[in-house]
Amino acid sequence: MSTNRVAAPADPASRLLHRDDSLLILDKPAGLPVHAGPRGGASLEDWQPALAFGKRRLPQPAHRLDTDTAGCLVLGRTKPALAMLGGLFAEGRVGKTYWAVVRGGPEAEAGEVDAPLLKRSTARQGWWMAVDPAGQPARTAWRVLGRGPGLAWLECRPRTGRTHQIRVHCAHLGCPILGDARYGGGDGPMHLLARAITLPLEPPVSATAPVPPHMRAALSACGWQA
Predict the structure, then answer these.
(1) DSSP 8-state assignment for residue 69
(2) C-alpha pair distances (Å), 49 with each of 44, 45, 71, 144, 223
(3) I need a labelling partner for 152 at 20 to 30 A (CA). Which of 21, 109, 125, 189 fits?
(4) Looking at the domain assignment, is residue 163 inside a domain?
(5) Residue 194's domain is classified under what CATH number?
(6) Torsions phi, psi for 213 (to 5 deg)
(7) Among all residues, which ones are annotated catalytic?
(8) Dihedral of alpha carbons 44, 45, 48, 49, sign
């Protein structure tokens, strides 16, 4: 079950974490799709005109972020910048840190999931990603930042950029993300945050997203302090 869709705020610029002439880093709220779907509804495309800041070209996302994932989203403001950013993501050179609150928790305190992912679909269930030896290589490093009653707070660092990678890998560990209905975490909202991102530019560009309201209670139960 998806988080309720999010309408554009009066000032989308208030959610910017970084702005320069080439790129923006936006704190995307959970529930906002990056692209408009066939059924319509609010999406990041509604925000783009307000984020142009005088440029004729609207800023475009340089990578994917699931609808129900909150946090750092990079947008290119020019065609060359978008191509450059796309190359950095494709080459795995972008540093990405996620926070997840999971149901249960891994026995160890840290580790790496190395489990290939393959897309599957049925007419009844739609599509999903599954661990399958025939899939594309996928690796996620993780460590426990805190634990609470029936919950754990994980820091995840994806080494590859597969669709739904962190969600599937957490489920593969036996501890699906809280609120991730697709992979066993129960009904939303999904407790997954793209916490920080680092772009290897000159000078480097990095940003950290704040914890969204819907994740604060569960994180606090695991020891997080605002």
Answers:
(1) -
(2) 10, 8, 20, 40, 39
(3) 125
(4) yes
(5) 3.30.2350.10
(6) -55, -40
(7) 66
(8) negative
